[in-house]
Structures are given as structure tokens and as C-alpha cells.
Amino acid sequence: MEAKTWALGEILKPERRYIIPTFQRSYEWTEEKQWRLLFADLVATADRLLQRRLFAKMTDSQPDEASVSPHFLGAIVCDSLPYPAGGVALRSVIDGQQRLTTLQLLLRGLLDVVQEEDVDGELKGKAKSLSKMISNDEDSGASPEDVYKLWPRRDDRVLWPMVISDHVPAYGKSDHLYLQARCYFAEAARESLSQSVGEERGERVRSLVDAADTLFKLVVIDLEKNDDAQVIFEVLNGRQTALSASDLVKNLIFLRAEFAKAEHLELMYDRYWAGFDDPWWKKKVGTGHAARGRRDVLLSVWLTATTATDASVGNLYGEVRAYLDREKPKTEELLAGLKAFAEAYREVYAERQVEDEVLRRAYDHLIQLGNLTAIPLLTWLRTLPDTFVGSDEHRDAVQAVESFTVRRMMAGSGWGTRNYGQIFVKVMADAKAAPLGGVRDAIVAALHEAGWPTDDELRTAMLGNNFYGQNQKRQRLVLGAMDSRLRADDPKQAPAAVDYSKLQIEHVLPGKWEKHWPLDESLGEVERIKAMDARNLAKNTIGNLTLVTRYFNGSVSNLGWADKQPEFAKQSSILLNLGIAAVPQWGEVSIEERGIALAAIAAKVWPSAEALGHVPSTPESAEGAPGVG
């Protein structure tokens, strides 16, 4: 490669065009982060030049402008493009497109002000100088677009001629960033001139133009035949606006693409990648340092599923590059696979319609439970053809993932989620290795091996664990799913759309029971302490918890059973409450009996591995909770 430092005017005044590839990211620089600093740099550079000129004028000497300190703007990387005979020389901007675009908008805003100030024609030369850095001569090219020094990514090519034209648009805050930038730089130039009048004002205009022309410096790196554009891009990118892993991967894919013609590359971009420019994909998810754009999350999901290894978010680009170097997939096949994963990912997250109600509900439950380690597996399953995984097998496989997750959550801390990353990578690997018709069985077997609570373990947990200690979203999910199952199993119940997320969690025996739920006064001190402990344990188990609507009279929550029982009788729209209202006197025995009944319902909603057809290789193949994670 050849690298050389040039003044901005030396780069832009020759008859040449700089083309921004379609796959480059959209323009993102803003006033707060870049424009304001750039214009401040221009003013500071112009001040140095103006001071040198004023000193020379005062001393009646020639200004030594060559000794004025320039301002270094960074680097751009360009690659030559073929162009037709009689056309303008073309350069593809591999890196630095945000910077080069901003400089064009700075020059355009500055030109607006020069044209305003040139009332007597004395600034005509400066206006012409700026124009030559924005536009080529109209008769210099073979096509109408040849007049533009910079030609943006294809999505912006309809807008750009208006952005760069002599016509000053009516600006608004909702305008494209191009227009906002032009407006900002023009206003900033006017502000910098506001304290100057007469001859001094004209000199200040000239110093701004000349500083941009001759003292703004860029390193231009021109690639040669054997240069790896992506390696150079990686070294130089992100100095101003950090690139995401997906931006880096996109550039890697398209810079290395084996397409012979630019038109083919643009076709592939439109067909497979353009959808990722949607704001939904750019939105960050997660919090703090873990926040990532959805495109990066998808990339991690795709790589985890493709390689059956746990992709490192911190080194995502490096791992994708290593995979591409190792496997060398065809570009179109790679892009088609990513697009298929993107569509499946949106379906898992309910951004695209999923017709199957069982799958739709399972996805929602898993996301609410926070089991994001299962997303690569769920997404991969959606990309498989029906001829490989039929609809019933697909449904059973996803139900297995949900059941495994819910049962372990219900079973408590001894089971945990600490090793979920490793568990689901192993499940992914086993599923990918499965033969035709064997994906479901492979997933069920792998989850069983990882520690899938049995019906007995589930019942024990539901009778003894502090379910109220779970967050309320999880409580509503579990109770709501069981109520929904009761409704589905009762032919007398008409279908009803209940939004369980808006219902309230209610203790049947109150959390503060001491005043209105007295213990047997005949108990001795030791027995009384045991009874208190038993009640305090029972009150937060699932057998004592239910869902109530907003019509439930909250004022009776801590009152005795005589006051609460009638309120539960009014809550018949929630089937979980029918049995509660029928109990003559609520207490520890009632709580245990209801816990047993709910455990039986839960076992149907979230079946065991055996219920889903798993046959252990040996009777003792599952070790249970200890040591599982």
C-alpha cells in the first residue's frame, strides 16, 4: 500500500470521485460527538493562519504560511475502481467514510456563508476554491453523477444531490443528518464571523477557507493489488465512532466477497443484509457494559449455533473472522444463512408472527425467565426444513427446553443456572449431530443428562420451597400457565384471553398472619415455635399463592379466613381460585394439599424427560441436583 499525507484541497480538487460502498454503515456523526470539535479545530487552525498574516501585514513582510502548524484529521483508506473511458477516476472508500462525508458537509456549509458574504465579488475566488472541493466540472465525466466528488452509500444517493447543491434547504430538526450537518457548519461559520466587521471580516472568511484547503491534512492510504483491505480497515477503524462487531463482520464479508461486479455485490446486500439497517436491529439490549445492539446479539447467536461453541461477546468479531478463515464459506451461502437466522430470531422474540401457539408461548416463557443461553438452539431449530424436523418434533424439542428451564427454576438454588452456557452448547452440539428424525430425542437426552428434575423432585420443591422468593414476573408466569392449562382441560370453560401479567400475586394465608390467624392456644412453647416455623415456611410456598384480578378487595388481605373466603369466591374467572374458596378453613394442611394438586398440573404443563419419550440408558443415568450447577 502507499500512504501519503495530503492537504484536503490536494485530495479533493483533482477530477476524482470517492465512492462509499453500499455495505458501509449509514452516516452517524453528530454535533455533540464530532461536528462541534471539528469546527473548533478549523477555527483554531484559521486563527493561527490569520495571526501569521496579520503579523506579516504589520511588519510589511511576506507571511510565512508554510510554517503555520496544520491540523491532522486522521486517515482514509481508498482502493481504485475501474471507470469508463472519458469518465472521472474512481476511488472506493474502505475506511474513513464518516470523516470524508463530514468534511464535504463542512465545506458545503462554509460555502453557504462565503456566498452570503461575497456581496462585492471579492470572495469569488474562495467560493470557487470550495466548489472545486465539492464538485467536479460538469463536463468532466461520462455520467451525471460524475459531478459529485463524494457519492454516498446507495440508500442516500437520491438525497445527496440536494444536500450538496447551491440551493439552501429549509432546515428542520427531523432532517437527515446530512442536512443537519450542513446547517450546523453554516451556523457555526456565521457565529465565528459575528465579532468581525469590514476588512477584518473578509480576512477571517479567507482564513477559514484557506485553513480547510491547505492546513487540514489527511493521510491517504491507497491500496495496491495484494493488500488486504480488511486488515488495514481493522487497524484504523473506530477512532471516532466505535464500530460494532456486526459492522466489522459486514465489512469483512463484503470486502472479501468473490463477486466480480459491483452490481452483484449491491444485489447481495439488498437481498441479504439491507434488513439489518432497520432501527430494530440497531437498538441496544442489555444493561451497562453488557449492552449490545441486536445485530451483535444475533451474530453471537448465529456463531454459537453454527459452531456449537460458546461465542465470546467480548471477542465476537475475532471469533467470526477465525471461523470464516477456517471454513471459507461462499459469501452468498453465508449471507443467506445469516438472514435465515435473523428471521428466526425475530420470530423467537415475537417480532414476526409465529402461528404455532405452543411455540409462541414457549418462546415468551423462556425469554421472561431469562434463559437467553437457549436462544441459539431455538433459533437454529426454526431454520431447519420441515423435511428434517417435523412440526411435532420441533414442538416437543422446544417444550423440552421450556420444561427443563422451568423445572430447574422451581427446584431451587441446588439446581441453578450457573452452567447454562455450557449445558446448552452441549445440547446444541448433540442436536446438530443427530440423524434425520432424531433431533428431539438428542435434545431431550442431553437435557436429561444435564439434570432435569423428575416429577417427584418437582413436587418436593413445590411443597417446600419459598416460591414467593422468585420475582413476581416468574410467579405470574408459572401460576398463569397452570391456570391456562386448567382452562384448556375443562370442556365447560369457554376460551378466554387472560393477561396474566396484569394480575396480582396474593397470599391466601397472609404474610402477616399473626393478628387474625392465631395458632392453637393449647400448644406448649416448643410446639408453638415449631408451628410458627411451619406456618412461616408454608405461607410462601406455591400452595399458598394465587393470582387475583384488580377487583379483589385488597383491604382484606391480612384479615381472617371469614373475610377473605368471600373475596376468593368472587375470583372465579381465575380457575386456580375455585378450589380455594371451597375450603372451609384455610391452613397448613390446605396449603400442602393445594401444593400437591398444583404440582400435578405443573407436571402436565412442563413434562418430564420421561413423559417426552426419553428412555435412560441405565436406571441411574440422572444424578439430580447435587453438583449439576
From TrEMBL:
Protein name per Swiss-Prot or TrEMBL: Uncharacterized conserved protein, contains ParB-like and HNH nuclease domains
Span of domain GmrSD restriction endonucleases C-terminal: 452-600
Pfam families in alphabetical order: GmrSD_C (PF07510), GmrSD_N (PF03235)
Positions of the GmrSD restriction endonucleases N-terminal domain: 9-254
Coiled-coil annotated residue ranges, if any: none
Domain of life the protein comes from: Bacteria
